[in-house]
Structures are given as structure tokens and as C-alpha cells.
Specification:
Blueprint: H1 2-5, E1 8-14, E2 35-40, E3 43-47, H2 53-66, E4 78-82, E5 106-112, H3 119-125, E6 142-148, E7 152-156, E8 164-167, H4 172-177, E9 180-187, E10 195-202, E11 205-210, H5 221-226, E12 232-236, H6 241-244, H7 259-269, E13 274-277, H8 285-298, E14 302-304, E15 310-312
Parallel strand pairs: 3-4, 4-5, 5-6, 11-12, 12-13, 13-14
Antiparallel strand pairs: 1-2, 1-15, 2-3, 7-8, 7-9, 9-10, 10-11
Length: 313
């Protein structure tokens, strides 16, 4: 257990983009949309709430019920969900995430303000009558919902701690002393307000979560700097290059990257490992395998993320 406390434990819960893809052609990599689970120093951090979050919630609920026969002795479920943005494939699992229906749960929900809309308003739109039977405000759990700024950092001062939001400009000593922290980078390379990219830092290890971004000529300089020498870069890799530039169905400007854009950032940022992520729903398992091989020629320490893949860093 002591050794595990010094590690980042990461699990991919959903790796698809746009919409879920069930069926026999997606069994290897999975068909659920974006969700990554990270555990560090006794804290649970969840990145995006696509349909991949549903299985995590089921496991958390089962563990919670089995932790004690007496309800009053069960420790409350406590977690933070970091939303990259509020497009449907990154929020559609939240409504079916069992822990938010438990009165004892303490849920921190963080993400960007999109244009003039606060995060709480954006999440609430996904749970509004007559399109869903339960509204966000009616969930019985304790919810702390906050729109984050790029100049802020979320810190966890200790094991099983409540997150604190501090300024990267004025609270440098506080950030440096915190064992676990999450930094933010805003990218405008996605339609309708952009997205947040997150960097988890714990025990001198770094994981960067960069989904729903589109590459730039010469590489995304801000992202390259943000991810510099990260232990793991999770990068949007929705398209093959030939699909990206296709005249039949052009996708330039859709806010997603090619596999070459991902490897380019990985090389220039000198990261240790690259995880391809947010695959196009039209790509089956064989197609993603081909994508992985193409990427490995450019950046050998590349793998295609798949559901339930667990990594220790």
C-alpha cells in the first residue's frame, strides 16, 4: 500500500469520440466515450464524464455498499470530475453515474466557463425536463460546482483531501508544498469556446490529458510547453491524415487531431509515453491497430488507449 501511495494509478474508462460505438467490431478498444480515472495519494480524479464513467460509478457504488453492513459507518464517496468541456460525448455518462445519487457523496465538479455560461448551467442543460427525469439541482449528493480559470490550480494538500483552488500567480508556495496538483491550459482549437487541457502532477510524475484539440502547423506551442517531459501524454487522435484532408467529408476545423499531430507534439515535448485517444466512432478495432502502428513509426513509445487499461506511473 505504501508503494501505491507514491504512484499515479490511471485507468481508461472510455476512449471514443463523438458517440458510443457498441458492437463486435469495437470489443478490443471499447465503445464508450471519454473518461479517464486517476488515483493519487488517496484522491480520486476523473477526467470527463462520457459513457465510460458509468462503469466506474457502478464499481464505486458496489465498493461503497460492501464497505460496511451499517450505513452510518460507510465512508462517503468523495471525488473530483474535471470536464474538458461540456459537449455531449464528455457529459452523457454523468446522468447515470451512481455516486451522484447518494446523499453522502461529496462531488467536486470543475471545468471551463464557455463564453458567458458557467459550468453549472452547461451541465444542467443535459439534465432538464422533459429530456431527462432528474435535474442537476435535484441530485441528492453534495455538489460543489465551479468554473475554473486558466490562472488557477487545483491542489490536494493531503491524502483524501478536499480540493482547493489557488492562483498560479499568487500562491506559488502553497502549490509547491501540495503533494498533488492539477494545472490547466486553455486551448481554442475546438469549436464553440475551446477546451481545457489538464496536467496532473504527483511525486514528480506528470500526466497530461489533452482531448478535443486540433493541431497547428509546426506543432501546438502552448501544449508542447505545457506537456514538456511529461511521463504520459493522452492526446486526441481522432483521424488518419487521409481522412482529415478528405474531399468527400472534410473534417478540418472540427477540433480534432490526426495521429501525426499527436506524435508531433509528443516528440517536441519529449514526453516518455503517448496514448492515442478519442478515436473516431467509424474506426473499428482493426483500424485503430493500424493507427497505433503508424504512430509507433513516428514515436515508438506510443500505444492506443483501450477501455480498462490500467497504468501505474
Amino acid at each position: 500500500m505504501a508503494k501505491e501511495l507514491n504512484k499515479i494509478i490511471l485507468k481508461f474508462r472510455g476512449v471514443r469520440g463523438s458517440h458510443p460505438v457498441p458492437g463486435h467490431k469495437t470489443l478490443k478498444y471499447g465503445g464508450n466515450t471519454s473518461c479517464v480515472e486517476i488515483r493519487a495519494n488517496g484522491n480520486l480524479l476523473i477526467f470527463d464524464a462520457g459513457t465510460g464513467i458509468i462503469s466506474l460509478g457502478d464499481e464505486m457504488f458496489t465498493d461503497h455498499v460492501n464497505s460496511s453492513q451499517h450505513k452510518h459507518l460507510r465512508k462517503p464517496m468523495r471525488f473530483t470530475i474535471f470536464f474538458s468541456h461540456t459537449h455531449h460525448d464528455h457529459t452523457q455518462g454523468f446522468s447515470f453515474f451512481k455516486p451522484v445519487y447518494q446523499p453522502s457523496s461529496v462531488c467536486y465538479l470543475f471545468g471551463p466557463k464557455i463564453f458567458q455560461e458557467e459550468l453549472e448551467h452547461g451541465l444542467g442543460k443535459a439534465m432538464v425536463s422533459p429530456y431527462f427525469p432528474v435535474e442537476l439541482a435535484e441530485l441528492p449528493s453534495v455538489k460543489i460546482i465551479r468554473s475554473l480559470k486558466e490562472t488557477e490550480c487545483v491542489i490536494y494538500p493531503s491524502k483524501e483531501a478536499n480540493p482547493q483552488i489557488v492562483s498560479i500567480l499568487h500562491d506559488i508556495k502553497t502549490i509547491d508544498s501540495a503533494p498533488l496538483k492539477v494545472y490547466i491550459l486553455k486551448s481554442l482549437a475546438h469549436p464553440n469556446g475551446g477546451v481545457y487541457i489538464y496536467k496532473v502532477v504527483y511525486n514528480n510524475k506528470k500526466v497530461v490529458y489533452a482531448t478535443d484539440i486540433e493541431g497547428f502547423l509546426g506543432g501546438d506551442r502552448k501544449l508542447i510547453s505545457f506537456a514538456y517531459k511529461a511521463d504520459l501524454l493522452i492526446h486526441d487522435s481522432q483521424y488518419f491524415h487521409e481522412d482529415y484532408i478528405s474531399d468527400i467529408f472534410p473534417v478540418q476545423g472540427f477540433g480534432h487531431s490526426t495521429v501525426q499531430m499527436a506524435t508531433d507534439v509528443a516528440k517536441q515535448a519529449k514526453v516518455k509515453k503517448l496514448a492515442l485517444y478519442h478515436f473516431d466512432p467509424s474506426y473499428d478495432d482493426n483500424t485503430i491497430e493500424k493507427m497505433e502502428k503508424i504512430a509507433q513509426k513516428e514515436f515508438p513509445n506510443t500505444f492506443a488507449a483501450y477501455e480498462n487499461l490500467t497504468i501505474e506511473i
